Amino acid sequence: MFDQLCEEVVAEPGDPRLEDAFDWACIERELRRDDEDRTWGNTVPSGLFALEIDSDTCDEAGLSDAQLIDAVVGFERVTGWAEARQARLLAEFARRRSGDDPALMATDKPCTMGRFAPDEVGLALKLARMTAKARLGRSVQLRQVLPETLTLWSQGRLDERRVAAICEATHYLSVEKARAVQQRVLDRAPDLTVGQLKAALKRAVIAVDPEGAAERHRAARRDRRVSISEEQDGMASLWALMSAPDAQASFQWLTRLALGCGRDDPRGMDARRADLAAALLSGRLTHAAPESDTESDADADADTDTDKGADRDAGDEGCGGPAPETQTSPAGESGAGAPAPVPRPVNPGKPLVQVLMPFSTLIGADDKSCELVGHGPIPADLAREIATDATLRRLVYDPLSGTVLDYGRSTYRPPAGLADFVRARDVYCRGPICRRRALDGHLDHITPYPHGPTNDKNLHGCCGHEHRMKHAPGWAVRALDDGRIQWITPTGHRYHSDPYDYRPDDDLPPDKAPAERDVAKDLAGRLERLERDRRTTALWNGEAVPCDDDVDQPPF
């Protein structure tokens, strides 16, 4: 009935059927009136809910800031619900267009989809054939291999990008291994950003299929290359594919050289890195200036709290430590014929890459997932390869919480022990959706000094953007007793970030490990939803529906 009412896109405001549809939404709202915690952002989406939120948000100006955010989340959930419904229909369409096209999924696995099914979908949706082909293939994968992901998508708790990340990560795995990866990440997926979810998926894939992950890395490494492509307005792109450690180290070194150009350099950080790369690769810059005995201000800022100077963040344009007045910017916009300058790198002794690896994996006893900070999980073989030419630091973590307890110091010119401890504990910026390395950021007081102490509980790794956001009007940050940091937005919404958990998935306690599905609870929930739908339909048809209190009690 609801679908029939919605078939007419254009309807007069006084259309009685449209008014009946809104009455139906009111009935649904009335059935949920006892749920005091219900908001647009936490309601399970449906066709009725879509109609309800659409009617309730017609007057945008009359909504509060918090209601606007809740409505945005609500529409996001409705979008996920609609996309999941479409995926189910696409999977059914693929089933009806039977065939055997091994090229569909770019593997040698047989597929039941007909060769020209993507053309039908592409013509209907105005999509390129390969795009339609990928969408059909993903729908089939969700229906046949990852039904739990499809269910969560139908509830609006996942969006298309998260679902695509899960499908892509499990694409080349067997059905059993794909479901094992899904089981490890699915419970956490709704609370993660796409980048955080991809990192969790990489870690799960390595844990489930360590040999396959190592083999796939070796195959990908054989394909490393450099290419050039034309861009608009007289520009071009120079693109390099290399191993993750090499790419991270190269970028970090360019960043340090760019910071060495000084605060007076008018160019942004991206422009500095591009000019330095061109100067280095073309031979105009062949060496860096010898390190001075006196560290720059940027060196000092990188190892201390920066409540007053956090704006000088390595990722922000126009920032960096000071340089001697006689230095100039390399390969500047004035032309390539200028003499090659010699910028002094900032913090030249700090490690370019940071790898987290269990001791058992280091000695070859197992192949647990390792972490290249700033990139994500990497295979154990690659981590051991990095460790053969690296300075090692000992980390001891609490097996119950996964939080670092002790930070061994055996490197050259180490920062203060407290700074070491905080950076090792956090690993990444403690903004809930930020994945910038704590190694590149600042140590920030949660409660500003001198009102708050300088200790591990009041310090956290923070990039410049999060620092400025924390001090913006309406924002607040609190340290919780369980080690989490709570961020409160101007609308009153609360979000949390956790310290880095060093434990592999196999060592997680039951409350954090991927949980087994509670079949009885799921069945009870389904029955409850069916009963609610039955009552709603009865009310719609004008039938009398007894209250719950009127139901006969046993023994009947």
TrEMBL record:
Residues 117-293, 371-426 form the DUF222 domain. Residues 305-315 have a biased composition (Basic and acidic residues). InterPro entries: DUF222, HNH_nuc. Coiled coil: none annotated. Residues 330-339 have a biased composition (Low complexity). Residues 292-304 have a biased composition (Acidic residues). Transmembrane segments: none annotated. This is DUF222 domain-containing protein. It comes from Pseudonocardia adelaidensis. The lineage of its organism: Bacteria, Bacillati, Actinomycetota, Actinomycetes, Pseudonocardiales.
